[in-house]
Amino acid sequence: MPCGTQNAPQPRAAPLMYLAVVTGANKGIGFVIVRELCKAKFTGDVILTARNEKLGNEAVKMLKSEGFEVAYHRLDLCDQGSAKQLSNFLQKTYGGLDVLINNAGMSFKSSIFTLSTRGFDQPFAYWLRVRMSLQTT
């Protein structure tokens, strides 16, 4: 169902319906992107992703209170299993993905200048795997 409607997301019945996934969308720019897709009456379903299930569901609840229908799916870019679960869900439920807005970011617990090369590279390697996994659905 189109994002601007009150109906729960359903698998696409017609090729004129699309699917958009916005990563890192429980707050900030990602949240606004989801809201704007809905305001623009995106022709299809919008899935908001976040690594924290509680925050992701709270964001969906807030958007629903504004009259938008958005679904949540957990996605943690540093967890390959999480990315694979999302990829499998998208393939099984929607037959793939039409629009990916990759907004998810990573924060480092210490100064970026004190990280080892591995500590710096590992999150980006996972991000690339996630991107490839989602592109191949």
From TrEMBL:
InterPro entries: NAD(P)-bd_dom_sf, SDR_fam. Keywords: NADP, Oxidoreductase. It comes from the Eukaryota. Pfam families: adh_short. GO terms for molecular function: carbonyl reductase (NADPH) activity. Belongs to the short-chain dehydrogenases/reductases (SDR) family. This is Carbonyl reductase 1.
